[in-house]
Amino acid sequence: MCLFGASGHGKVVLDLVESTKKRVVTFLDDNPLQKSINNVSVFHSEKIGDYLDKQFVISVGDNLIRKKISELLKVTYAESIIHSTAVISNTVSMKTGTVVMPMVVVNADTKIGRHVIINTGAVIEHDCLIEDYVHVSPKTAIAGNVIIGEGTHVGIGANVIPNIKIGKWCVIGAGSTIIEDIPDYAVVVGVPGKVIKFNKPE
What we know:
Elements: E1 2-4, H1 8-19, E2 26-29, E3 36-37, E4 40-44, E5 56-58, H2 63-73, E6 81-82, E7 87-88, E8 93-94, E9 99-100, E10 105-106, E11 111-112, E12 117-118, E13 123-124, E14 129-130, E15 135-136, E16 141-142, E17 147-148, E18 153-154, E19 159-160, E20 165-166, E21 171-172, E22 177-178, E23 186-189, E24 194-198
Parallel strand pairs: 1-2, 1-5, 2-4, 6-9, 7-10, 8-11, 9-12, 10-13, 11-14, 12-15, 13-16, 14-17, 15-18, 16-19, 17-20, 18-21, 19-22, 21-23
Antiparallel strand pairs: 3-4, 23-24
């Protein structure tokens, strides 16, 4: 398996992959100073063509960069990696390239998009829709029937009550509690969560 991205998140994904007894053969990254991670070689991303026949995961924490790499690769399939301690309902649907960290719970009839990160200890309840390139941070709790739009980052320990729609490319601050719908590109902090500004990705 090949991992695209040799940053801190890449280290975590490496551990996750190895926990499933799969072997990472290389990292690809643009950082010329990064030569190896835990005895796995890092090659410059210009060598990407040499590895497109491998199973791969985009191991980049930044949602927008993860999307750009996905579009650059123009590959329709990427491996999804799920830690053995995660509890995923049999009725959950999950698209390619998603990583699910230890102690995650995803309940019935939730739909997970492409290249999503569901981080350690997060809980996603029933009938949610988590769109492409979302990052659900550690210890986040998302109640039932919630929609989270493309590219949104839900910060550590945030809580979302049922039947909420969060727009695309939002940032939900750590520890925030979301009790009303959130528009696209909003940055939200506090309890209850309040929009403090809007950031549209370039």
